[in-house]
Structure formats: structure tokens, C-alpha cells
Amino acid sequence: MTDLSARRVVDLSVPVAEHLPASWPTHVPFQHQTYTWFGRTHEGPGAAESRLGSYATRWMAIDEHTGTHLDAPSHFIPPPGSGLDFAGEWGDVDVDGVPLTQLIGPAAVIDVPELEAEPGISPLLEPEHVLAWEVEHGALQLGEIVLLRSGWDRHYLPGAAGDAYIRDAVVHSSAPAWPSPSVATVELLLDRGVRCLGTDGASMGPAQGGQAVHVAALGRGAVFVECLAQLAELPHRGATFVFLPLKVLGATGAPGRAVAFLPSA
């Protein structure tokens, strides 16, 4: 049995806060507000009065796809019998139905090369990039979790500086977006036996339209972990990836904590 206590742990999750680009800019914004703060205070915008005891707690309004999060198949696949486009058996699989074994496994970290794109467009990672990686690092194996490392998390910054993460591309079309795998690349990875695919980009799908990429993978029972961070700390092979989402019944996605256990020295 592997002794994980002897291995260095890398936190691959982005922090979540109102001043960070934690949520999709056209969806419900993340909110975290004071409900009660110990005793009684009347100062500042977070003023609150507790009649329930001397303790502090806050409430959250949060989209399922906030921060580092999981995309379950039901995010893009309607349930069977619904009569909707792309409906199928995987449309019945929500977050609580994704086995944890699918979210834990050996990591294969693929570097995304510098790719040029127009404003509002995601450059695409094509199959030849994956094939070139396999020539150098060996063929992808059944059960490996593929992590796409582009360094896009460098844009996950507070305030206006964080607009480069999603908003500039999606809302203003004023800058290129995060790199994304093409449909052909996703299909290649699934054919290799990959059932969990992660990215340090804002989404696995491109800014110019993410449906096709999501349908290609989620429609075959694969899942995505999006908005990862610090993938630069991982070797191409040898780390163990773990993602544990909140167990929200009926959720199409859920935030969680992603970590990697690095190989022992």
C-alpha cells in the first residue's frame, strides 16, 4: 500500500472569493455574506446582530460551476426519453452518481504549446499535440487522468486584473481565451481510456462555443475538472491526482478540492 503521508501534496485548487473571477461572468455571481458575527456590531457594510449566541457564520450564493469544479455528464447531456438533442443514458448521471474512483488516479500532464488565436477565441489543442507528447512520454493508459497544463491560471487574479481569466474573452471579445482541446482531441483521449480530463483553463470547451467538446466527452461518461491551478508543480507522470466534489444531489457540477500527491523522492 502506498504511504501518502510520505509524499508532498500540491493544492491544485483556486481560491473562491467575490473579488476573484470564480464564477462564469454571465451566470450567478459568487456571494459570501455575514449572517452573524459573535455578538453585536453596527459598524461597516457587514453589520450584523446575533440573537442566537456568540459565534460567527456566513452564507454563500454559489453556482454549481464555481472555482475548481467538476462537470458531471448531466451538465450537457439531457436524460434519456427527454426528446432533447444529445439525450442519452449518461444524462441521468449527476455529481452524486460519479464514482470517486473516476476522480482519483495517476496523472498524465500534457503541456499545451503556445497557440495563437483571435480575440474572443480559444486556440485549440489538436490530436497531433497529444501524439507528440506520447512519443516523448509514452502512450496514455487506461484510467490515467489527463491534465492539460497551459498556465492559464496566471490570469486568476483579484479585481480588474482577473478579467483576463474569462470576462475579456467571453463578455468583451477583447482578448484571446484559454486554450481548449478540439473535439478530435477529446475523442482521441477517450479512445485511450481516459475518463477524467482536467484543465487549468476556465473551461474545457472553447470560448467560441463549448457544447461540442462537452457533449463529445460527457456523452460517453467522461467528466471534466475545470479551473485547476499550480499544474506547473507536477511532473509529466508520477503524481496521483485526487478531486473530491461536494456531494450535492442532482447537481450538474460541484466545486471541490483538487490535490496531487507527488512521487516520493
What does this structure look like?
The chain is α/β, with parallel strands linked by helices and 265 residues long. It folds into 2 domains: 4-27 and 63-261, Putative cyclase (Glucose Oxidase, domain 1, 3-Layer(bba) Sandwich); 29-62, no CATH class. It has helices spanning 127-137, 167-170, 183-191, 211-218, and strands spanning 9-11, 31-38, 40-41, 48-49, 55-61, 69-71, 104-111, 124-125, 145-149, 180-181, 196-199, 223-226, 237-245, 253-261. Strands 6-12-11-9-7-13-14 form a 7-stranded mixed barrel. A hairpin with a 7-residue loop joins strand 13 and strand 14. It is globular and about 65 Å long. 39% of the residues are buried.
* Count of DSSP-assigned helices: 4
Mean pLDDT: 93
Taken as a percent bin, the fraction of beta residues is 25-35%
Helix content: 10-25%
Side-by-side strand order of the widest sheet: 6-12-11-9-7-13-14
Q: Give a short account of the largest sheet.
A: 7 strands, mixed, barrel
Task: Give the helices and strands, then pairings.
Layout: E1 9-11, E2 31-38, E3 40-41, E4 48-49, E5 55-61, E6 69-71, E7 104-111, E8 124-125, H1 127-137, E9 145-149, H2 167-170, E10 180-181, H3 183-191, E11 196-199, H4 211-218, E12 223-226, E13 237-245, E14 253-261
Parallel strand pairs: 7-9, 8-10, 9-11, 11-12
Antiparallel strand pairs: 1-14, 2-5, 3-4, 6-12, 6-14, 7-13, 13-14
